[in-house]
Amino acid sequence: MRELKFRVWDKVMMKMFKPQAISFDIKSSVPFAVSVHGRSWEPVGKFELLQWTGFSDKNGIDVYEADLVQISSDIYKIVWNETLATFELVELRGSSRCNISAITSGSVIGNEFQNDNLY
Q1: How many other CB atoms sit within 10 Å of the CB of residue 75?
Q2: Tell me: the pLDDT tens digits for 70-106?
Q3: Does the global pTM surpass 0.85?
Q4: Can you tell me the distance from the alpha carbon of 69 to that of 74, in angstroms, rounded to the nearest whole number?
Q5: Number of DSSP helices (H) and strands (E) in the chain, helices first
Q6: Which of 71, 44, 52, 67 is nearest to 2 (CA)?
Q7: Angle at 47 between CA 46 and CA 51, to 5 degrees
Q8: Which residues contact 67 (CB under 8 A, 6 or more apart)?
Q9: Phi then psi for 88, rounded to 5 degrees?
C-alpha cells in the first residue's frame, strides 16, 4: 500500500498545518473533519486538503498538491487531473503541462496560498 500524506490550508487563519487526523465518512469515504495540533476537530470545509504527490523535488522536499515548482526558468503548479486520475504540472505563465515525474528535476518554491506574488 502506498503512503498517503496530507497537509491542510486553514482558510480562516490563512496558515498551513500538518493534520493530526482526518475523519472520513464510512459510507462515502468523503472527509468531514480535521484535527490539527492544539485544536479540537473542525469541519473539513474550513480547510483545503492537500495530498502528497508521492514525489520529492531535487532537494528532497515532499511535493504536495498546490505547490509551486520551478524547473529551469518556468514555474509550475501541482494540480490533480480528475480525468486522468493523476497529479500533473501546469505552467503558470503558459498553457503547457508536464508529467508529475518532471518534479524530480525542479525545486519547490512555495504554494498557491502563501506565494500569490509568483502568479
Answers
A1: 20
A2: 999 999 999 999 999 999 999 998 889 999 999 999 9
A3: yes
A4: 8
A5: 0, 12
A6: 52
A7: 160
A8: 77, 78, 108, 110, 111, 112
A9: -150, 165
Instruction: Fill in the DSSP letter of residue 41.
Output: -
Q: Which residues contact 13 (CB under 8 A, 6 or more apart)?
A: none
The amino acid at 20: Q
Domains detected in the chain: 6-118 (2.30.30.290)
Q: Which positions ≥6 away from 96 have C-beta within 8 Å?
A: 74, 90
3 state DSSP class of 78:
strand
For 64, residues 6+ apart whose C-beta sits below 8 A from its C-beta are 5, 7, 50, 51, 52, 53, 78, 111
